[in-house]
Design a protein that fits this description.
globular, mainly alpha, 85 residues
Amino acid sequence: MYKITKLMIQTKLLLLEYATVNDTAQNHWKLAAIRSIKNLLLHLDLNAEVVPVNNASRLQNLLSSLKGEDLNDEENKLVEELVTI
């Protein structure tokens, strides 16, 4: 189940990244946030971590822990967007 939830988030990120790259109205900060979150997910230990795909605040806390600092505004917005799609 953990691999599926991580895969779900990665798939959502990929779709958002594709939409952001192909939409000139999107800013580069969102693209940077997408890539940052994707990189953080690579460091997730699926044997030790539960990926909260339906809870933005828990996912933000998990990603902040992996990052070693608070997520920036764009990353937080992106996490909220991820749990709604």
